[in-house]
Design brief:
Low-confidence stretches: none
Order of helices and strands: HEHHHEHEHEEHEHEEHEEHHEEHEHEH
Bound molecules: pyridoxal-5'-phosphate
Cofactor: pyridoxal 5'-phosphate
Strand content: 15-25%
Distance between the termini: 49 Å
Family: Belongs to the class-V pyridoxal-phosphate-dependent aminotransferase family. EgtE subfamily.
Pfam family, one: Aminotran_5
EC number: 4.4.-.-
Number of strands: 14
CATH architecture of the largest domain: 3-Layer(aba) Sandwich
Mean pLDDT: 97
CATH topology of the largest domain: Aspartate Aminotransferase, domain 2
Catalytic activity: S-(hercyn-2-yl)-L-cysteine S-oxide + AH2 + H(+) = ergothioneine + pyruvate + A + NH4(+)
Radius of gyration: 22 Å
Largest sheet: 7 strands, mixed
Length: 398
Amino acid sequence: MGLDLERVRADTPGRAETAFFDSAGSSLPPHPVLETVLAHLRREAQVGGYRAAGERADDLADVKIALGALIGVPPASVALSDSATRAWSDFFYAVSLRAGDRIAVSHIDYATNAVATLQRARAVGAEIVVLPSDAQGRTDVEALDPVLDERVALVSLVQVPTQSGLVEPIAAIAAKARAVGARVLLDACQSIGQIPVDAAALGVDAISGTGRKWLRGPRGTGFLHVREELLSTLEPRSLDLHSAQWTSTDTYELALDARRFETWECDVAARLGLGRAVRYLLDLGPEQVFAELSRRAAAIREALAELPGVTVRDPDDGPVGAIVTLTIDGVDPVAARAELAARGVTVGASSASSARRDLGARALPAVLRISAHAFVTDEDTDRLLIELAALARRAGAH
Ligand SMILES: *Cc1c(COP(=O)(O)O)cnc(C)c1O
């Protein structure tokens, strides 16, 4: 069964404003998500935040149940946070590292993760090693053995980078990492909501994700999943009265479940909105959504390949997802994004400063990024292609 695209479009009021191709940046929430957030803010204004949250206790508990169902893990292994970055660092800084340990990162590493890795490696005297990649930019599973040995304490992976359609062979890399006893942390920011993510099949220790991208949730939401057997061994770098209990004047006890990575205070409305967004996706079917997004991305890549002056920058072989990246001869992607926005077409751009190893190795200062969600219509896509062709023509004429 395909998706009910009519319903998805009718549920997305923001579509009327712009042809929207930036779901990898910050997507348009469906109406039920927006209503959930607004209704809770109104209720807080009527009865105060504590009573309002109490009234929604079941729905708040359901946020973790829904996320657990989405990635196939128990709700108690999920911690809610205010961003994927926070979730990622909560795990990253809790893994114990000693001088001489190695942290392995991939070629497509994201700037936020990269700077934290640099900081921590310096602080503890660890060494950073980069996993080998193939000609397409994917981690080369066959070439991992010389790099992955027992000195590697932590492997930091990104399933789908912010700057290309590439999809990493996570399960195969994680299997090799586990074989040498390394912890595996997966940044699933660009895959969650785009590609079905099954934690057990991937075989990683922890997964971080964000609400506002492909999940179409509110801003300021994210989550961390940590494998249950591992939780009791990890002491978060900061605690409060929710992640731990003050058991006597001189003692505290950490929460036994993933709550040890949460803080008590949070944006309750946004959190309810995140839960609603995950339920919305589960209702549509993550597999169906992925099939639809893949179909669209393939059609856009095919159409772009026909445009003079346009070069698609995604891998042309192996698994690719719904992020489409391109450059236009003689056009600065960041300036092009602004020009397109002024003409009612919203796209993203990724600069080398967010992905130095990948875009740096390809000598690309930046790329334009097209990320179409299921609510995008064929007319939106036609508009996008017309505008991109016009940009290429104008640049070619100089
Ligand atoms: C957006 C993004 C992040 C950061 O997510 P936040 O919710 O903004 O913290 C991390 N990794 C990748 C690959 C991303 O694209």
